[in-house]
Amino acid sequence: MDVDKKDSIASDSSDQVVNPWEVSAKDGGKIDYDKLIDQFGCQRLDASLIDRVQRLTSRQPHVFLRRGVFFAHRDFNEVLDAYERGDKFYLYTGRGPSSEALHLGHLIPFMFTKYLQEAFKVPLVIQLTDDEKCMWKNLSVEESQRLARENAKDIIACGFDVTKTFIFSDFDYVGGAFYKNMVKVAKCVTLNKAMGIFGFSGEDHIGKLSFPPVQACLSVPAVPSFPSSFPHLFPGKDKLRCLIPCAIDQDPYFRMTRDVAPRLGYSKPALIESSFFPALQAKNGKMSASDPNSAIYVTDTAKEIKNKINRYAFSGGQDSIEKHREIGANLEVDIPVKYLSFFLDDDTELEHIKKEYGEGRMLTGEVKKRLTEVLTEMVERHRMARAAVTDEMVDAFMAVRPLPSMFE
Amino acid sequence: MGFSKDQLLSQLQELEIDYSKYEHPPVLTVEEQAKYVSSSEGALSKNLFFKDKKHRYYIISAMVDTKVDIKVLSQRLGLGKGGIRMAPEEALAELLQVSLGCVTPFAVVNESARDVSLLLDQKFKNQTRFIFHPLSNDVSISLSTSGLDKFLQSIGRDPVYVDLEANANPVVGKDQPPDLAVYVPSNSVVVPELPNKTPSAQAPPKNVSAEKTKPVASPKPSKSTGNVKSVVQNSGLSVFKNPDKFVEEILDKTSALLLSEVKGENVEALAETLRKRLTSEFTHLAVMYKNIAYSEGFYAGTQCQPKRQ
């Protein structure tokens, strides 16, 4: 869902900027998530909601919930209300397959979605927006389709259950009921609104506004949130609710969807939103696929992971051992500790590390070593799972077929 | 909130139940407790907290040297060979409202433990007095069986004494029903995996319904997909359809074998650790296995020749 950055709204660099095509903090500092929640008008995911999830699913909440990685939402409590009454929901998430190289930041929404699928026992649709990438990243149709399938393999490797998951690419699936919804949505969106969302001005050439791409981009977030877009999955269930796990910079797109939904007689999709996964070298903002050293890739070897962490992970430790033992590490800016808070499942161990490191008894080297272990194990597990994904499996996940066990 | 030891002790006094109290540093094991309370005061007990697959819970209170074979117990309760295992810590806090190392028959005084079955060692009856923690592991009290019985009756419970070592090779069949099956609680309890700080706001009936049968109980949306073969949720089938249930079955059998082959208190803790650490790994593997099987079937379907007419 990225749009050409050159044409984004000129931003005031003294304020933080968060929208689908640009993320930067105020004055090069940290992103203020509280301000963001206020600005966007979504809600905090507080401890009582997390407790509720735990009660409803009879299992420990996912590490991303416990650590506040997924920290904001829209209507999640209503989804839970309905769930308690026996009214299920389905999940929708997606990826714009622009590159073959997937890094850990890309996996986060999928790891979380997999947990949601397992914990709530609900089906999932995953959209690969190959058409959008073809258009905006100037890839050939064949290349974008190929990338979509390659990305699908990494997604499947995250552990989704084929009897409850439908993966589709826009080039393959757009048509029929899906396209009808696309047109319905497009009819609801005025030009002004579109320009507002995309940041176009009167100066932009009409190619950008020419109907299919805009339709596609506008519909991209909207249409899969409506169950009638998938008649082979949810026939007759037009009121089935949809829950969308996504990064918070996608919020503007879904605001539009929620605006349009009631006008079309559909339920508003609910959102559960995550903060950004920081780049290795910190430098505020997100990991970037264009700088290989800003991220750990799922194809990195154990050696490469160790190297990247040791050389590039921004440390909050002090310059000298003496100073470090005296003052302790700056946990606010330390990347290894931040990464551990995402991926180290054991709460007790994380607390211990934070305490020892923050008070100077543990050194940066030790923290980095632990992080290397955790990430290497994760990447290795992913690689093994990825190797087991055959083309036939991708075909199976992407086949337009009913999913009779989807709520079991 | 849970009964405190003081509330319990004053209740015993009110009932005019004679007991002797011994205070000591908190102890987690029987060995430690033995250091502070000599056997002249009474027989020490070991107290175990179990759970079965249908989320029903049991306290087994026995003499220290009585052999408690989990496998045998499970069969005698009619739950099959691997039917019960040590209850997780969270259940201790949630249902019995006591801490680790503090399981005691007195815990059933709590409302939250109303569905927990309490089985007492027959051998207690041969003792004049025996020793339990009164809801806190920094105190031990000794009292007689008649004292314990009186207390249990005062809270509406029938004291149940069982010969735990009898029937060491239970043969359970049509003509020989499991002899302890009558003590299986009629209600199961759902305990979330971590202790809840805020009391559950859900209506009581939700807590009582067995978690596993929930999918059957809640009606499937009536406008279901045109799938004629409507799925009747049968627990046998779901073990093979569902990666988590599949993994739970594997770990149950592994734990049961481990517990029956090796003795000792640490073994139970080990079995729990294995279960905790392996569940997620195994579930991941099970999902992959399922996906591959499905894909191969799917592919075969695409290549399938139509039936010759």
Task: Explain the overall architecture.
Chain A: GO terms for molecular function: ATP binding; tryptophan-tRNA ligase activity. Chain A: Pfam families: tRNA-synt_1b. Chain A: Belongs to the class-I aminoacyl-tRNA synthetase family. Chain A: Its main location: cytoplasm. The complex is a heterodimer of chains A (408) and B (309). With 408 residues, chain A is an alpha/beta fold. Chain A has two domains: 31-279, 3-Layer(aba) Sandwich (Rossmann fold); 302-388, Tyrosyl-Transfer RNA Synthetase (Orthogonal Bundle), CATH 1.10.240.10. Chain A has helices spanning 33-40, 47-57, 63-66, 76-84, 104-120, 130-136, 141-157, 170-173, 176-188, 191-198, 206-209, 211-222, 251-260, 302-312, 321-327, 335-343, 347-358, 364-387, 391-398; strands spanning 17-19, 22-24, 43-44, 70-74, 89-95, 124-128, 165-169, 241-247, 270-274. In chain A, a hairpin with a 2-residue loop joins β1 and β2 (22-24). The two termini of chain A are 32 Å apart. Chain B is α/β, with parallel strands linked by helices. Chain B has two domains: 5-183, YbaK protein (Alpha-Beta Complex), CATH 3.90.960.10; 240-302. Chain B contains ten helices and eight strands. In chain B, β2 and β3 form a beta hairpin. In chain B, α9 (243-261) runs antiparallel to α10 (265-302). The longest helix of chain B has 38 residues, at 265-302. Residues 193-233 of chain B have low confidence and may be disordered. The chains are: A alpha/beta (408), B alpha/beta (309). The A-B interface holds A 48, 51, 54-55, 58-60, 84, 86, 88, 118, 121, 156, 159-163, 233, 235-237, 381, 385, 388, 390, 392-393, 395-396, 399, 402, 404-405, 407-408 and B 190, 192-194, 196-198, 200, 202, 211, 215, 218-221, 223, 225-227, 229, 231, 233, 238, 241-244, 283-284, 287-288, 290-292, 294-296, 298-299.
